Amino acid sequence: MRIAIGGFLHESHSFAPRPTGWAEFLEPGGWPAVQRPATLVAALRDTAVPAAGAIRAAEEAGATITPLSWGFANPAGPVTAEAFEKLAALIFADLVAALEDGPLDGLYLDLHGAMVAEHFPDAEGELLRRSRAILGPGVPIAASLDPHCNLTAAMVAHADVLSPFRTYPHVDMKEAGARAMALLLARIARGTPFAKAFRQLDYLIPITSQCTLVAPMAEVMAARQSIAARLGAAELALCFGFPYADFADCGCAIAAYGVTQAAADAAADALLREVKAREHDFAQPIMPANEAVAEAIRLSRGASRPVVIADTQDNPGGGGHGDTTGLLAELLAQRAEGAALGLINDAESAEACHAAGEGAAVSLALGGRSDGVPLQVEARVLKLSDGRFLCTGPMAGGNLAELGPTALIGIGGVVAIVTSRKMQAYDQALFRHLGVEPAAQRILALKSSVHFRADFQPIAEAVLVAAAPGPVVADPATLPFRHLRPGLRLRPGDNRRVG
């Protein structure tokens, strides 16, 4: 049995300040760079990406892997037409070459599901359309997805089965890749397609309300598992949506796969009812930054563990540039002692720190490269690094981070990590590689919305989610959408509809 494996992953924020070009796929920070067929298996096998799980599952099944190209870029603005076509051209040239070497039994694609390209709003729908056009109707196609996927009818139509992660924070990426491969092998073995059902929710779910560790999403995911088992669904895919993509199919959606159409429809409808029933629970408040810092200082006085503040609106994993300074300014203004911030993405300031050397005093116009609002600080360079370290946490363990010249600086009672490339603060190794033990801090300020919880919540006294300036707004209804489908509501519990 011969299975082709490739991938193209990006989460696109239509309103983020910077587009995603080819360079961002070549140097993606904490994730593997673009891989070609000769390097794909070896480069991805020991990482945390979904394709690693698919590779393992295919090998365990005795399949012959035919590698294609694979690429990832950190969330940011829409993918440029140039970058999209370059990577798509590599993948599909590899696929054509694979077919010239002999028949393929199936194709697995490692996709995100929330990519918007400048010329293809439903970018994954286009990738799957091209895959189907090359392979024809007889070769099964499966893909793993991030649950922040904006699932579309075109994606469901062109693939035989789609399987998203079950967790947010995403600690089951490899498991999702392995599951998608297992479903592909099952589809090949049965010889006929699964019946499919597709449903869309009529309201957007904020990112900060999508965490599967807590209610209501924890309850929804438990119901998903029960429904799939009870109704015999081969796969019951719940995609939470990425509510920053300005195109018609933005939002939460479901794809159910079953032996019969009636079974697929029943599973999709039952899960849709579960999500709708918890609508008001998804409307959760976020603290203003000044209140979050004041509360963190108060809680830290009697705490034996750090208080964590999530800087959700500048989340590099949601399209933020990781360089806004609103939360840092608040920590300094309130004299937060023993606080550590990860991170400020500012290559110019990192370069200045390296030029000055460890122990030097530096004057920095820190951050603000994306919003034009830097913070003038007098700092001391405490530690320098090349930004290379191995992630160790439950989400990205095994991934090599390459953040470029990096510095740990001290500003009053606050230390901050300054990097040359962005990375979401989801792994304690970000701090440890600079000699900072996260568990020993009084306050940890993290550029993240939810992923930080996988590695930092177990050591936290309390977790506070703060709204400081940044593009990953806690309330997507405040964004100037122009292309959403009529009837969609921009927040849970709000009866106002688009169009």
Please explain how this structure is put together:
The protein is an alpha/beta fold and 499 residues long. The protein folds into two domains: 2-282; 287-474, no CATH class. The protein has 14 helices and 19 strands. The chain has helices at 22-26, 40-44, 50-60, 81-100, 123-135, 153-158, 173-190, 217-231, 261-277, 289-301, 326-333, 347-356, 429-432, 453-456; strands at 2-9, 64-72, 106-111, 141-145, 161-164, 195-200, 235-239, 253-258, 287-288, 307-311, 339-345, 361-366, 375-385, 388-390, 400-402, 406-411, 414-419, 443-446, 462-467. The strands form four sheets. The protein has a nine-stranded mixed β-sheet. It has a five-stranded parallel β-sheet with strand order 2-1-3-4-5, sandwiched between helices. A three-stranded antiparallel β-sheet has the order 6-8-7, with helices on one face. Helix 5 links the parallel strand 3 (106-111) and strand 4. Helix 3 (50-60) packs across helix 7 (173-190) and helix 4 packs parallel to helix 5 (123-135). It starts with a strand and ends in a 32-residue tail after the last strand.
Gist?
With 499 residues, this protein is an alpha/beta fold. The chain contains 14 helices and 19 strands. It is 30% helix and 22% strand.
Main β-sheet, spatial strand arrangement: 9-19-10-18-11-17-16-13-12
Largest sheet: 9 strands, mixed
Fraction of residues in β-strands: 15-25%
The secondary structure category is: alpha/beta
Would you count the extended β strands for me?
Answer: 19
Span between termini? 49 Å
**Total DSSP helices:** 14
- Shape annotation: globular
Q: Give the tally of structural domains.
A: 2
Estimate percent helicity.
25-40%
Average predicted local confidence, pLDDT: 97
